[in-house]
Amino acid sequence: MEILRIALQKSGRLHEDSIKLLKDCGIEMNLSQRRLKSSALNFPLEVFFLRDDDIPQYIEDNIVDLGIVGENVMLEKERKLKIEEKLGFGRCRLSIAVPKNSDYQTLENLAGKCIATSYPNILKKFLDKQQIQAEIHTISGSVEIAPGIGLSDAICDLVSSGETLFINGLREIQTILKSQALLVAYKSMKLPKKSLADRLYFRIQAVKRARNNKYVMLNVSNEYLENILNFLSGEKSPTVLPLADRNWTAVHAVIKEKNLWDSIEILKAYGAQDLLVLPIKKMIP
Ligand code: PRT
Ligand code: ZN
């Protein structure tokens, strides 16, 4: 029987969210800390646990069919892969930072200077595009200490909260990439494997859609119903139900999580009452 193989990060920042995604897709597996490989119990899927840096190569060589990695890793490794989905977790940015008290203000100020990074390929492409000539010093970890020990004038590293930069007396001057976790696939996947992958993509899309939306239920006095329906007309056909009290109507609609609080405030202002906001488990078109 054909089995789909997916690589996830063994441990680290993407591990938990990757497992959670498969779980939300209804895929069950036995997990134990030391395992390198695990078979799903209810889907033809084998899960390989690897270092994130190795995942792009494993996919290009088709040791596995799919993987979850940060866009930063995918771009740095320069492998031929197909991006199937943006997953919305593991968000961070790759930025150039300089010592807080230095005179460097812009990228141009770094011409002829030395930048330490674990992302030499992405950085080189960026600098070439901006026509800045700077020396790139590749180091594999603790990039943030490089300027402090005289190894470089600036760094190029991942940032999420900015705390690491702050603690190390660094200041961001330029973001060069915004990154999130991606589902990436082997370029030339063929049937019947492809149809298994499509089943998984379908589930992931349903989970993603559900995560991005909320189900809102509200009651409104009939005199305000039209306002509410006008406001919700951008959303896909709200459900309209009469209440026991004939002067009142219930309206149910799916609302984007991103605009949720703004939408609620507007709905309230338009006369909505008794609002309930519910999470959606899966959303299938
Ligand atoms: O062992 P393995 O090689 O698999 O893991 P790793 O140590 O290489 O990677 P890991 O687990 O640290 O990160 C995996 C992926 O998570 C990265 O490739 C990014 O796509 C994503 N990600 C999201 C981050 C961050 N946020 C992040 N903040 N990866 C690293 N960081 C580091 C950053 O390098 C810096 O040291 O966190 C520090 C900055 O964080 P703030 O919050 O202080 O700004
Ligand atoms: Zn890594």
Describe this protein's structure.
The chain has 285 residues and is α/β, with parallel strands linked by helices. It has 8 helices and 15 strands. It has helices at residues 15-24, 55-60, 71-77, 120-129, 163-167, 193-211, 222-232, 260-269; strands at 4-9, 37-39, 45-50, 66-70, 81-86, 92-99, 114-117, 135-138, 154-159, 170-179, 181-186, 213-221, 239-242, 248-256, 272-279. The longest helix is centred in the C-terminal third of the chain and has 19 residues, at 193-211. The protein is flat. The strands form 3 sheets. The protein has a 6-stranded mixed beta sheet with strand order 2-3-1-4-11-5. The two termini are 30 Å apart. The structure holds phosphoribosyl ATP and zinc ion. Zinc ion binds next to loops. Zinc ion is lined by residues 51-53.
SSE map:
Layout: E1 4-9, H1 15-24, E2 37-39, E3 45-50, H2 55-60, E4 66-70, H3 71-77, E5 81-86, E6 92-99, E7 114-117, H4 120-129, E8 135-138, E9 154-159, H5 163-167, E10 170-179, E11 181-186, H6 193-211, E12 213-221, H7 222-232, E13 239-242, E14 248-256, H8 260-269, E15 272-279
Parallel strand pairs: 1-3, 1-4, 7-8, 7-9
Antiparallel strand pairs: 2-3, 4-11, 5-11, 6-9, 6-10, 12-14, 12-15, 13-14
Bound molecules: phosphoribosyl ATP and zinc ion.
In short:
The chain is α/β, with parallel strands linked by helices.
